[in-house]
Design brief:
Order of helices and strands of chain A: EEEHEEHEHHHEHEHEEH
Helix content of chain B: 55-70%
CATH superfamily of chain A: P-loop containing nucleotide triphosphate hydrolases
Largest interface: A-B, 27 and 24 residues
Strand content of chain A: 25-35%
CATH topology of chain A: Rossmann fold
Order of helices and strands of chain B: HHEHEEEEHEHEHEEEEEHEHEHHHHH
Oligomer: heterodimer
Radius of gyration of chain A: 18 Å
Radius of gyration of chain B: 32 Å
CATH architecture of chain A: 3-Layer(aba) Sandwich
Number of helices of chain A: 8
Largest sheet of chain A: 6 strands, mixed
Structural class of chain A: alpha/beta
Chain lengths: 241, 404
């Protein structure tokens, strides 16, 4: 069975007035279905860029990105949008909820772009996702009426509703107090236990500890890739060659 | 995103800031209302003119002296002899000589300045005027040059109020007249208020005014009005010694004008005015469209993060483009519908006022005006919505999500 994600020699550079700024310098990475992986690194290390490429919001400059056994090179904007609509989803630090929409309407939003779910079934899917984050009693509330932790749980429900193969969580606790952050991480942990693959991007060590595997990025390269098993055994990161 | 989703998203988008939406739509509302109003009023006016023609009869013709500029203020070209000769033409059914007496009409302390027509009795038939009380002028009044007067509806009310006017004595200038009849209300005939005039015998008018020439003649033709017109023109040119083989109206000292011609002139003027005003209304729509574009650009900027989010969850550029285009069109369509209601309502109110002033003025709601105004609103939304919508659809999702 092929990996969910396979990266080989992935490079990413930005060009500004013909001045090239290289962000990723050749990333090799395999992620399997069902993993809970944290990508860590200091500011400017390239972790967000990597997440954007993995989440089909951006394209690599060079290298190969294979997703579910298929090389993603040559896919056009509509193809990438279709993957984002059906196979991947995001939980953002800033929640990005529509403030004048209800919880239910926010969670329904991704289903507008999902070709495989009939209009009549949308609400059923949305309510199921809201229930899975424990906010059934808040479905009719405006998102602006919720606490930060509740907002992030709505964002998780929105990410779940399309039943994607992969969920990206970009600093999901960054705007939350520690209690709310803990609740959110527990929800993500539960989702992973239920079989969802989760890629967590964070710079907080405590948050990353919820993941089974931590990938450290520094200066556009993977500095270390450690599983919790190894972390427990060695008590330290294993440096990659 | 299916059509229903698009529609829901569009109306939900414009509902988020109702005050701004209302202000944005104002230009479109005014533009569409103006288009509907102008065209409907134009059509109503046209319909009014046509109904006037029907009541007036297409075989009615007026012979009016002209040449004020050429003849130094002398409008005395039509004489009693002209009238006698025109009367004998086989293409003329009957002809009414008219002298307009420019003197005020008084009763007790009341004084009014209606038109005072000195005319033979056929004028009532020609203008479709019917008796209300008493009698019309007759041949005995004419032959005896009696001081009898028939007063139209409004002037009768103005002078006598609720009092019975029959047998009352009124003054026209210095002369005293007995009211022998009053007329039913008819409103206007080709924009002349026919509820105002006072009618006296032609022979009496000649004496009272001391005028031998005619103010005009009004006649009914037999058969084709064009043939009658040709006969009258030839006769009068011959009598007035005018050589005008090229038919240059400037060379004649009279003009024969049929009701149909009047209608055609008024209709052309109405049509011209309608087109002109509709064009002005279109400019208002254009300005409204620019307003829509500006607000949509602001909306795109304000909702940059939402656009980024929608893209992140799978919206294609086309979905974003259609969403914002749908919002723009929803905005102009809503404005269009309000504008149509406003235009139609205002038109109806104005026609009620016109109906009181002119009589028999009915409001014609032009369906083609409604359809074209609505289509213009939709097109305005599409045209002026494209640029902001394209801008939204081209936003980079990562940049859009980071937008503060």
């Amino acid at each position: 069975m092929p990996s969910l994600i396979s990266l080989s020699g992935l490079h990413k550079s930005y060009f500004n007035d013909e001045v090239e700024t290289a962000v990723l310098h050749g990333i090799d990475l395999e992620i399997d279905t069902g993993e809970f992986i944290a990508i860590m690194g200091p500011s400017g290390s390239g972790k967000s860029t990597l997440m954007h490429i993995l989440g089909f919001l951006d394209r690599p400059t060079a290298g190969t990105y294979t997703f579910l056994g298929e090389n993603t090179a040559g896919k056009n904007d509509d193809d990438l949008a279709a993957i984002r609509a059906t196979k991947v989803s995001f939980v953002f630090q800033a929640f990005h909820l529509l403030p004048r929409a209800t919880v239910l309407e926010n969670v329904l939003l991704p289903l507008l772009y999902h070709p495989g779910i009939a209009s009549i079934d949308r609400e059923k899917y949305a309510r199921k996702a809201i229930a899975s984050v424990g906010l059934s009693d808040r479905a009719g509330f405006l998102s602006s009426q919720l606490s930060g932790g509740q907002k992030q749980r709505v964002a998780i429900a929105r990410a779940l509703v399309t039943e994607p193969a992969l969920i990206f969580a970009d600093e999901p606790t960054g705007n939350l107090d520690s209690a709310s952050g803990l609740q959110v991480m527990e929800v993500l942990e539960k989702l992973n236990a239920a079989g969802h693959t989760i890629i967590l991007v964070t710079h907080e060590r405590t948050t990353a500890e919820f993941a089974d595997r931590i990938v450290h990025i520094k200066d556009g390269l993977i500095e270390s890739d450690t599983s919790s098993h190894k972390r427990r055994k060695a008590g330290a990161d294993v440096k990659l060659k | 995103m299916n059509s229903l989703d698009l529609l829901t998203a569009a109306f939900s988008g414009i509902r988020t800031n109702t005050k701004r939406t209302a202000m944005t739509m104002l230009g479109i509302i005014i533009g569409v209302a103006a288009v509907v109003l102008m065209i409907s009023i134009g059509r109503s006016f046209e319909s009014y003119i046509l109904s006037q023609i029907d009541s007036f009869g297409t075989n009615t013709m007026d012979i009016i002296p002209t040449g004020f500029e050429k003849f130094g203020g002398n409008l005395e070209s039509l004489t009693i002899e002209d009238y006698e000769r025109v009367k004998r033409l086989s293409t003329v059914e009957h002809v009414v000589p008219v002298i307009i007496v420019g003197k005020p009409v008084g009763y007790g302390r009341e004084e009014r300045t209606p038109m005072v027509f000195g005319a033979t009795e056929s004028i009532f038939g020609n203008y479709g005027l019917e008796i209300d009380q008493g009698r019309l002028l007759d041949s005995a009044d004419e032959e005896g040059a009696l001081h009898s007067a028939v007063v139209a509806y409004q002037t009768s009310l103005d002078l006598f109020g609720n009092r019975n006017p029959l047998g009352e004595r009124i003054t026209i200038g210095e002369e005293s007249f007995t009211v022998v009849g009053t007329l039913q209300s008819v409103g206007s005939l080709l924009l002349s208020d026919m509820d105002k005039p006072v009618f006296i015998p032609f022979s009496t008018a000649r004496i009272v005014s001391g005028q031998d020439h005619l103010s005009y003649m009004t006649l009914k033709t037999v058969g084709d009005p064009d043939i009658a017109k040709r006969d009258i023109t030839e006769l009068l040119r011959d009598r007035h010694r005018i050589k005008n083989p090229e038919n240059d109206p400037d060379k004649d000292d009279f003009i024969a004008r049929s009701a149909e011609q009047v209608t055609s002139i008024v209709s052309s003027v109405t049509m011209g005015l309608t087109v002109f005003l509709a064009l002005i209304a279109c400019i208002s729509l254009l300005v409204g469209g620019i307003g829509i574009m500006n607000i949509m650009l602001v909306t795109v900027t304000e909702r940059t993060r939402e656009i980024g989010l929608r893209k992140a969850i799978g919206a294609r550029p086309r979905d974003i483009l259609l969403q914002f285009l749908a919002e723009s069109v929803a905005l102009t369509c809503t404005g269009g519908i309000i504008g149509i209601l406003l235009g139609a309502g205002t038109g109806w109110m104005l026609s009620q006022i016109a109906n009181r002033v002119l009589g028999e003025f009915h409001f014609v709601l032009s369906l083609s005006a409604i359809a074209s105004a609505f289509a213009m609103a939709v097109v305005t939304g599409l045209v002026f919505g494209v640029y902001p919508a394209r801008k939204a659809s081209r936003l980079d999702p990562i940049e859009a999500l980071r937008y503060e």
